[in-house]
Amino acid sequence: MSEFHVLLIAGTHGNEINAPWLFEQWSKYPGIINSHGLNISKVIGNPKALKCCKRYISSDLNRSFQNELISNNSIDEYEILRAKELVSTYGLYGISPCHIAIDCHSTTSAMGNSIVVYGRRNADLAIASLLQLRLGLPIYLHEGDKTQKGFLVESWPCGLVVEIGPVPQGLLDISIIQKTMLTLECFIEEIYKIKLGKVHFPKKLIIHRHLRSIDFPRTEDGQITALVHPSLQGSDWLPMSNGTPLFKKLDGSILRYEGNDLPIPVFINEAAYVEKNIAMSLTKREIWDFSNDWKDAIIDLVFNQSFP
Ligand SMILES: [Zn+2]
Description:
The protein is an alpha/beta fold and 308 residues long. The chain is 27% helix and 23% strand.
């Protein structure tokens, strides 16, 4: 049986440079984050793109972890090959198998410190619960979006994205780095506490469940005709109501939200999502009871490296 091993990833997007800088410092000065004796592999997701400070070279690495892409030997795009390499090195059946993957990102949106989970995997929800209990972090549950798939962490039995913002692409910002560091420290401590049998799970988990994404108003040939309204800019995690200004045109006209479902927007005006036709995503805040299945899944993974 292999020993429990954690994979920490930075620079999956090459223009998100804060977590890679933190990893570099951590390698130089191992004491800056206490690893509590855990087996941790730190890796740069997309080193080529990081060198050029570009999001990616050929395609988005964080949409490349799709079986049909990875198993297709005729594809020679850099990011697909890199996805294949990461899975064959650190994947469950790789050379240095890891059981949990934490993928550190930054966003241009004013999201603060947040966690993204993909789907409803028990062990992911257990870790998200622990981080929410410790740090009060909002959790964005990304599910039911067929246009966005192939996320890195989905290739590991348990994995989450740490998303910190706002910070422009390619800019180092000490507060973003410190927030990333704090989240990683708490994650490591919570895993350590699981190993010691001293972990406390919350009774509830507050999640923001993905509903849908909204694109910018565009012309037929794809040109953007209106931009995020100034009053909405920076209002991530705050509920919208019927009539909330969404977009503003140069002539001063305003497009407003229509609906009475009080959605909560996230990733408002994320620079990287313009190419994905996403101006923001809408979520619904839900309070879930903590499930013992989540706890059992993470304990099983940590102690037995087993998972459903
Ligand atoms: Zn990213």
